[in-house]
Structure formats: C-alpha cells, structure tokens
Amino acid sequence: MVPKLDVRKANAEKKYAGDLSFTFEADPTLVEIPYVSPSSPVEAKLHYEILEDDSVEIAGSLAFSLKGSCSRCLKETEQRVSGNVEAYFVPDGESGEDYSYSNGVIDFGEFLRDSLIFLMPSRLVCSVTCVAPDYKED
C-alpha cells in the first residue's frame, strides 16, 4: 500500500525530513514488453525534505522484478530492475513541471507511476550473450 505524506502534520511535529519504506503492486499495464509482467512488488525507499515554503523534495530508489519471455530467444527469464527517483511537490501548484498536492497531503500515486514508466526497460533479455535463434526456411 502506498502511504501518503501529511505535510501539515509533519510540520506541526517538527519532522521536516524523514524516510519512507514500503512495497506496492505495480500496474501490469505499465509493462509494454510482450509476454512480460511484474513478478514482485515494487520496493520503494524514499527520503523527503519539507522546505520553508512547504514544497517537498523526494529522492530515493525503486526496485522490482520482471518475468516473462526473453525478447531475443523467447526463453523464460526474470530480471531485476532498479533505479533512483526524485520529485518536487508544490502545494496547490500549477507548475507543469512539478507535482502538486492539496489539503496538505501528498499522494505519491502519480509520481510512482511516472517513475516506473521511466525505469521500465524496453526489452527483457535473459543474458548479455543471448542471440536470437537462427530460423531457416525449408
């Protein structure tokens, strides 16, 4: 389950920075590789910092596994995918480049979905030396 960050509560408790660790299920429709799907929950490790203007910087990492047919040889394979992510949230913002939040609560849903799309490989390969089978016409 994806937690939400209550910025007002964190400010009231003088917790201007902190860490969040959680897992969530990736939307299988984000995987555009044929015959491949997520095989593990996404592991998120995020650090947040609330700035003086109540904007929030998020940085951390996401990791997950994909399982399915190798894009070259079609053998069943699994690949671990991980990467660093970052975002900037502004309160009631209308900036097209930043994420916004309202009522003092940040919902990470859109940010996590966008991050998974950017981390998704274009293909799943069983090994670096994998080659496509040589099909000969008779």
List the helices and strands and how they pair.
Layout: E1 4-6, H1 7-12, E2 17-24, E3 36-38, E4 42-50, E5 56-69, E6 76-91, E7 99-101, E8 105-107, H2 109-119
Parallel strand pairs: 6-7
Antiparallel strand pairs: 1-8, 2-4, 3-5, 4-5, 5-6
Q: Care to describe what's here?
A:
This protein is mainly β. The protein has one domain. Helices cover 12% and strands 43% of the residues. It has two helices and eight strands. The chain has helices at 7-12, 109-119, and strands at residues 4-6, 17-24, 36-38, 42-50, 56-69, 76-91, 99-101, 105-107. Strands 2, 3, 4, 5, 6 and 7 form a six-stranded mixed beta sheet that branches. Strand 4 and strand 5 form a beta hairpin.
Write a concise synopsis of the structure shown:
The chain has one domain (4-119). 12% of the residues lie in helices and 43% in strands. It is built from two helices and eight strands; from the N terminus they run βαβββββββα.
Give descriptors for this structure.
mainly beta, six-stranded mixed β-sheet, 138 residues, two-stranded antiparallel ribbon
